[in-house]
Amino acid sequence: MWQAYLNAIKNLWFRDPSESPLYINDTAVRVRAGILLVIPLYMGLTLYDAIYVSNWIVDGNTSVDTYELDWDGHIIYQVEAIRRTFDWTIQTWVLFYALFDMLSGMSKWTSRLSPTILIASLLAADKPAVWKPLVPKRFAWTLGSIFIVVCIVFFNPDSTARILNSILGTEIPTHINYMPFWIPLVLVWVCLGFMWMEAILGFCVGCKIHSMLVWMGIIKEECETCNNIDWDEIARRHQERQQQKSD
């Protein structure tokens, strides 16, 4: 048993860091997805609170009866109300960590910088290993990174505008959030669903998309479900069909 943990510390979730292409332990990948599942859940609840919960705070002790009625006979009260303000500092740092973790898993060198990968590798060390190629996982994590970047931009429109203004020389206002709230809200729950399927069902949506793109010929690289594709044979058949049409 101890040898398994030593191997996890040495190789993390890689079968052999020196082999090419790289293979990783899918059991550890699922454990890592379960750990990171808390991040989209936290962000989803944050967005729900910011979007759907009232932004006004009313203290009942400040409610004063004006002894007047509206047209519907309702009593009119005079109150002191405070509009809530939101500080997204914690959420931003959480998203930056999630982005760092997504990107760090794409390389055998940067994977050692991720504490989540180390923890997942140790937790899966005494479990039967299921070896899967790293390439489709990279594609899936790239999609996750894009989702995270969109959420970072939504939570920090002022900083994003200032960065774009300094780089592009534009004059984008820094006090307006141009991104509709439904975009990050949908992406957060989509990400939550993808990670839940990865952790609980062992179903990687990003890997399936990758295999479909390989099958369509859009991406020409090897994947587990498409490694029997003969690109030369496909090109030859396509050329034959084109020649038959021309005849």
Biggest sheet features: 2 strands, antiparallel
> Compute the gyration radius: what is it?
26 Å
Given helix and strand content, the structural type is mainly alpha
Number of strands: 6
**Distance from first to last alpha carbon:** 67 Å
Choose one word for the global shape: extended
Mean pLDDT: 83
Strand order of the largest sheet: 1-6
Percent of residues in helices comes to 55-70%
Helices and strands, in order, run as: HEHHEEEEHHEHHHHH
Describe the protein.
The mean pLDDT is 83. A hairpin with a 5-residue loop joins strand 3 and strand 4 (75-78). The chain is 58% helix and 9% strand. Strands 1-6 form a two-stranded antiparallel ribbon. It has ten helices and six strands, in the order H-E-H-H-E-E-E-E-H-H-E-H-H-H-H-H. It is mainly alpha-helical.
In a nutshell, what does this entry contain?
The chain is mostly helical.
Write the layout of secondary structure elements.
Layout lengths: L1 H10 L11 E3 H11 L1 H15 L3 E3 L5 E6 L5 E4 L2 E3 L5 H16 L10 H9 L7 E3 H22 L1 H12 L13 H20 L3 H12 L14 H16 L1
Helix pairs in contact: 2-5, 2-8, 3-8, 4-6, 6-8, 6-9
Top keywords for this entry?
single chain, 247 residues, mainly alpha, two-stranded antiparallel ribbon, two-stranded antiparallel sheet
